């Protein structure tokens, strides 16, 4: 089997149906069984599993790579991220783009509070408006880039004070776990987003050169009505260069699980895949509390 470009395969995965992804994974699984000493095949299978959100399978592939090639820094780094141990391994210097470190905290709030957040979102349905893109001073609606509805801070008011407090209390701990340069926490910016059928957000990053430059950590809290009435809406965390100028083609897929919080450094590129749903009710959509922890300027 020839080693086709993994970059081309990952680009296809980001926009392809599940059947194709499963078929691609099966082909590489077969290839690794036929060529068990081929480090590159295990590496590519690991990258495919990471792109599919299959963390345990990806870790197993990277472990195979490290068993055969102990000096493979990228495999060691990615495995540590997927295992939640990114604080123990330095970012490799032998690649232009590196995976985003991230944390996932399941059952982030109590079940009762999770339901109260959902109730708040449904109650505020009429206040959700089209989300904008671009520098804050020049924001505009462009549904070819970002197709979603947003509930801004003025409409939220103090309704999420308890949630904001919980975020603030964890800031210092998250800095250590994500192995980011320590910073003094400033204000916490948050909004609520709603995605319905065919809505998405193209590749972007949250930290810019304007008022967003102090955004240091991004957090995304997933919540929705149970049973889940949609598919898709996964978050893809793209490998990003050290200066956050460009995104690579490889990524880590994060499944939007109810009552789960995702945290990652704001300079990493990411996107939301299109949501698919046959339900048109507002309460059946994909909801998130999206926010940014700002660093105090020194």
From TrEMBL:
Family matches, as Gene3D superfamilies: q2cbj1_9rhob like domain (2.60.120.620), Tetratricopeptide repeat domain (1.25.40.10)
Ranges: TPR repeats: 39-72
Cofactor: L-ascorbate
InterPro entries: Oxoglu/Fe-dep_dioxygenase_dom, Pro_4_hyd_alph, Pro_4_hyd_alph_FE2OG_OXY, TPR-like_helical_dom_sf, TPR_rpt, uS12_prolyl_hydroxylase
Domain Fe2OG dioxygenase: 186-295
Pfam families: 2OG-FeII_Oxy_3
Alphabetical UniProt keywords: Dioxygenase, Endoplasmic reticulum, Glycoprotein, Iron, Metal-binding, Oxidoreductase, TPR repeat, Vitamin C
GO molecular function terms listed in the Swiss-Prot or TrEMBL record: dioxygenase activity; iron ion binding; L-ascorbic acid binding; oxidoreductase activity, acting on paired donors, with incorporation or reduction of molecular oxygen
Protein name as it appears in the record: 2OG-Fe(II) oxygenase
Organism from which the protein derives: Oleiphilus messinensis
